[in-house]
Amino acid sequence: MGWAQGSYVRASLTDPVLVVTATLKITDGPYNGSTIAIIGQDFVYEDVRELAVVGGTGKLRRASSHVLWTTARKASPEHLVLQLDIHASINLKIRGF
Predict the structure, then answer these.
(1) Burial code of 56-71, b = ≥16 C-beta within 10 A, e = fewer?
(2) Mean pLDDT across the chain, nearest whole number?
(3) Beta bridge partners of residue 26, listed in sequence order
């Protein structure tokens, strides 16, 4: 479906909380080539974390809403496989209206 690129920054000295910024690029289907930008806090030990959709490009330009972010599995001690359920609203430009 696509790939993600971004950064994590530790946001607490005492708790496992990260600040996440990421760009998700869609590589298949009707949104191929479009991106979604997300940002938010990742409370690592919570089962489901909610982050904000703050924009996009291509057919997802000006997307907004949220992403439900869960850890699907640990690939290694340093790497996680994430499941992202993206809920986004976009403006559709319809000619003639």
Answers:
(1) beeebeebeeebebeb
(2) 91
(3) 2
N- to C-terminal Cα distance for the chain? 32
Are 22 and 9 within 8 A, CB to CB?
A: no
Residue 7: both structure tokens together: 């950064």
Do 43 and 16 form a contact (C-beta atoms < 8 A)? Answer: yes
Closest CA to 56 of 8, 88, 19, 82: 88
**How many beta carbons lie within 10 A of that of residue 36, not counting itself?**
27
Q: Are 22 and 84 in contact (CB under 8 A)?
A: no
97 confidence band (pLDDT: 50, 70, 90): low
pTM value > 0.85: no
pLDDT digits (tens, 9 = 90+) for 28-64: 999 999 999 999 999 988 999 999 999 999 999 999 9
Domain regions of the chain by residue span: 2-89
